[in-house]
């Protein structure tokens, strides 16, 4: 955002741009002053500026394969008094990521040729009452025995997990089991029906559609 204002301030001016963007002119001017005079930065910000080039150097000298732990250990060996969490934060800021051993895990395999249900919520994930809108997804968790997959269904109104299941394989059955558990436990009774929203991952089931209006009692 600051870079955008820098680019167009000569043409439109700072204040008119800030009226359109969600930023106060005083915030921009403060950031601009700190950029021009680094002594106005906080102690942490000045230290971050000094450490970032060193992190980039260590990462590059090791062929771009070191992750947070190895970069942190190398910097400690070189005499830098730095915490591992600081290395992790600065590597995120620098968009640096080490190489991960093993086969990457994919939780969503989108089938663009499969039919997709209409978007009943228009990406607006809000509900005025419980059991009116549920969203579901699944992810993976690393354990000593290997990766396991966790499917969950969340009530949007309360941000509460209403159904979940764990499986060693990413198949439709365990995702649908989580949905069935949620229906059994909550017994939704809204007259308009319950909207269930999921992504288009074909291995997630749901008839390969993104959304369903579930029949309810009452």
Commentary on this structure:
The chain is α+β, with helices and mostly antiparallel strands. It has seven helices and five strands, in the order ααααααβββαββ. It has a five-stranded mixed sheet with strand order 3-2-1-4-5. α1 packs across α2 and α5 packs across α6. 39% of the residues lie in helices and 17% in strands. The radius of gyration is 24 Å and the shape is flat. The termini are far apart.
Largest sheet: 5 strands, mixed
Number of helices: 7
Structural class: alpha+beta
- Measured on Cα atoms, how large is the radius of gyration? 24 Å
Question: For the terminal residues, how far apart are their CA atoms?
Answer: 50 Å
Identify low-pLDDT runs: 202-211
Average pLDDT reading: 79
| Percent helix | 25-40%
Strand order of the largest sheet: 3-2-1-4-5
Q: Report the count of strand segments.
A: 5
Shape verdict = flat
What's the helix-strand series? HHHHHHEEEHEE
The percent range for strand residues is 15-25%
Top keywords for this entry?
alpha+beta; 218 residues; 5 strands
Please describe the topology of this protein.
Elements: H1 2-12, H2 14-20, H3 25-36, H4 43-61, H5 68-77, H6 84-93, E1 133-143, E2 146-155, E3 160-167, H7 172-186, E4 194-197, E5 211-214
Parallel strand pairs: 1-4
Antiparallel strand pairs: 1-2, 2-3, 4-5
């Amino acid at each position: 955002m600051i870079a955008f204002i820098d680019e167009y301030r000569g043409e439109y001016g700072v204040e008119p741009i800030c009226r359109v963007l969600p930023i106060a002119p005083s915030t921009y001017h403060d950031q601009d002053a700190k950029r021009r005079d680094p002594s106005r930065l906080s102690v942490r910000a000045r230290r971050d500026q000094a450490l970032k080039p060193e992190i980039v150097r260590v990462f590059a000298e090791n062929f771009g394969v070191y992750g947070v732990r190895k970069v942190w250990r190398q910097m400690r060996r070189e005499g830098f008094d730095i915490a591992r969490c600081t290395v992790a934060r600065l590597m995120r800021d620098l968009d640096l990521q080490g190489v991960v051993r093993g086969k990457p895990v994919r939780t969503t395999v989108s089938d663009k040729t499969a039919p997709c249900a209409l978007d009943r919520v228009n990406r607006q994930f809000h509900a005025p009452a419980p059991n009116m809108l549920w969203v579901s997804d699944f992810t993976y968790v690393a354990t000593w025995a290997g990766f396991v997959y966790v499917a969950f269904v969340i009530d949007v109104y309360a941000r509460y997990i209403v159904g979940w299941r764990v499986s060693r394989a990413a198949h439709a059955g365990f995702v649908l089991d989580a949905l069935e558990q949620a229906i059994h436990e909550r017994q939704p009774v809204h007259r308009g029906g319950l909207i269930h929203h999921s992504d288009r991952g074909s291995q997630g089931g749901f008839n390969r559609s993104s959304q369903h209006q579930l029949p309810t009692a009452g």
